[in-house]
Design goal:
Strand order of the largest sheet of chain A: 9-11-10-13-14-15
Number of domains of chain A: 2
Distance between the termini of chain A: 41 Å
Number of helices of chain A: 13
Helix content of chain A: 25-40%
CATH topology of the largest domain in chain A: Rossmann fold
Order of helices and strands of chain B: EHEEEHEEHHHH
Strand order of the largest sheet of chain B: 2-3-1-4-5-6
CATH superfamily of the largest domain in chain A: Thiamin diphosphate (ThDP)-binding fold, Pyr/PP domains
Distance between the termini of chain B: 24 Å
Structural class of chain B: alpha/beta
Number of strands of chain B: 6
Shape of chain B: globular
Strand content of chain B: 15-25%
Number of domains of chain B: 1
Shape of chain A: globular
Helix content of chain B: 25-40%
CATH architecture of the largest domain in chain A: 3-Layer(aba) Sandwich
Strand content of chain A: 15-25%
Oligomer: heterodimer
Structural class of chain A: alpha/beta
Chain lengths: 379, 176
């Protein structure tokens, strides 16, 4: 069924079609509409899961953890400072190998207080042991929430998944979205029983103390599970493509064939950058774009394969690590170590600072002209 | 691709206007994208919304810098900046009952007066869209009617009829 809905509603539909059994939440702009949508469905009897509003995001994440370790399918969502408040729980959730899907709707961090998007909130979670899917379109959000459960609940993986979209330019943008039929999702997404879960009939402890070497073994296992999830993500995406004809990969290569220069970026602004690539291609410029969709685990191999033959690469970060630069930049440089490409970092769109096609055209022209590998601000 | 930028104030239905327009264009067979931009939500604050429509898929997003149409819901806004980015072919529609002495040609109608008369409050969005249909070829008044019905939902059947009556009056009275 085709509906005109925004990014927030797309995430809510993902949770509804996945039949999330528990939605603990606390509202924050620009996520609120996800929670409002689910609450309205619940009030009308269209959503069967438990809807619980807590007194903070920290409590929401705690409740999500508690519900999930009893074997319930859990969905929640947050943004910005709300995500930072959840942060304390995120390594616990992944460390206890607890499956769930958390939709993060990117909004810049305070201070100063902003409402519009950049990626500092979500990227701050990069070391939390969560699989991270960073989306560009409404359809991708809906599809990724559903696929997220299938990845998260895989017995070999048992890791929580973040599905990210940008606030405003994505979360409030309405487009046509294909909402899959319930029956199809029920077949695609059975709910596997957790082998290890909290059960009053079979008491056990989760999240035990582990010192030194024992601790290190747990972390090594978590890392291993993350690396193993590449295969699972790939399988699930292939299965989804067969079912819906919508193909997703770890990275999205856009007009990279024959390209000499390219932009590397994440998020909703990619759509605008692609339009810039189209405009330059029409004028015969050999440019392209690589969008990173799977951010954790980090698909080094696919990135290297896509970019190794290029001459000039612009890593466009919509985030800032003060005192270091863009967060994506060193990761792309690591993936491309040993390659000859000149890699320049551009910081843009912080706090939702407006961007247009011309900004990306300027970046692509600059990255070709520029002789040094350096970091630049695109204001 | 055809793009529309709508300026107004919080409470006037700026976001809803974009949603209704996009819905009407969708009903007329277009691919659509609508989006609203605002700061901390409050009544009276400037709000901007955007609509893009195309027979093919829409391959961009975000702020519309060079719109084909500009709709202004409130004539107390700083109009010079809201008319920024206009192209030679851009058409403007302003909700006003005054001579604004703008440097550009614009269509105008007193949508606020008509909305206040019909609805009892200053929510001129749907009324003004009635006038917009006159200068915006892709949709008909019937598309608008159906779109308003879908976007307002079934909760307020009375408001629906009053709004459509106001829209019809604006449609008849707009001066270009």
């Amino acid at each position: 069924m085709i509906e005109i809905i925004d990014g927030n509603a797309s995430a809510a539909w993902g949770a509804r079609r996945a039949k999330a059994q528990c939605v603990p939440c606390f509202p924050i702009t620009p996520t609120t509409e996800i929670i409002e949508t689910i609450a309205a469905w619940k009030a009308k009897g269209e959503f069967q899961g438990e809807f619980v509003q807590l007194e903070s995001e920290h409590s929401a994440a705690s409740a999500a953890f508690g519900a999930s370790i009893t074997g319930a399918r859990v969905f929640t969502a947050t943004s910005s400072q709300g995500l930072l408040l959840m942060h304390e729980l995120l390594p616990i959730i992944s460390g206890c190998r607890t499956p769930m899907v958390l939709t993060t709707v990117s909004r810049c961090l305070s201070a100063p207080i902003g409402l519009w998007p950049d990626h500092n909130d979500t990227l701050a979670m990069r070391d939390a042991g969560w699989i991270m899917l960073i989306c560009e379109t409404n359809q991708e959000v809906l599809d990724s929430v559903i696929m997220g459960y299938k990845i998260s609940e895989n017995k070999k993986i048992l890791l929580p998944v973040i599905v990210n979209m940008d606030g405003f330019v994505h979360s409030y943008t309405r487009t046509e979205v294909d909402i899959p039929e319930q029956k199809m999702i029920d077949n695609f997404l059975p709910h596997p029983e957790l082998e290890i879960k909290l059960d009053v009939k079979k008491p056990m402890t989760l999240g035990i103390p582990a010192m030194g070497l024992d601790y290190m073994k747990y972390r090594a296992q978590l890392h291993r599970a993350m690396l193993d999830s590449f295969e699972v993500v790939e399988t699930v995406q292939k299965e989804w493509a067969k079912l819906t004809k919508r193909k997703y990969d770890f990275v999205e290569e856009y007009k990279l064939k024959g390209a000499k220069a390219a932009i590397v970026m994440i998020g909703a602004n990619t759509t605008i950058a692609k339009a810039a690539v189209d405009m330059m291609r029409k004028k015969g410029k050999k440019v392209g774009l690589l969008r990173i969709r799977l951010f954790r685990p980090f698909p080094e191999k696919q990135i290297k394969k896509a970019l190794e033959k290029l001459k000039d690469i612009a890593v466009v970060d919509q985030n800032i690590c003060p005192g270091m630069g863009g967060i994506l930049y060193p990761e792309i440089k690591m993936a491309l170590s040993g390659c000859k490409a000149k890699i320049t970092n551009y910081i843009h769109g912080l706090g939702g600072n407006f961007v247009a096609e011309q900004d990306y055209i300027d970046i692509l022209n600059d990255v070709v002209k520029n002789k040094k590998q350096e970091r630049k601000w695109q204001m | 691709m055809i793009s529309i930028r709508i300026h107004g104030r919080g409470g006037q239905g700026v976001k809803k206007a974009a949603q209704i327009l996009a819905r009407a264009a969708y009903l007329a067979g277009y691919k659509t994208q609508d989006f609203a931009l605002y700061g901390a939500e409050r009544r009276g604050a400037p709000v901007t919304s955007f609509v893009r429509i195309d027979k093919n898929s829409i391959n961009t997003r975000g702020y519309v810098w060079n719109p084909d149409y500009i709709i202004v819901l409130d004539d107390t806004l700083e109009l010079s900046c809201h008319l920024e980015g206009r192209k030679k072919i851009t058409k403007e529609l302003v909700n006003t009952n005054k001579d604004l002495k703008l440097p550009v040609h614009y269509c105008h109608v007193d949508a606020t007066g008509i909305a206040v008369k019909e609805l009892g409050k200053n929510i001129p969005n749907i009324a003004l869209l009635g006038a917009f249909v006159k200068i915006f070829e892709p949709i008909t008044f019937e598309h608008l009617e159906k779109a308003v019905e879908i976007e307002l939902g079934k909760k307020h059947p009375e408001a629906l009829q009053k709004n459509l009556k106001a829209a019809k009056e604006c449609h008849d009275k707009v001066i270009c």
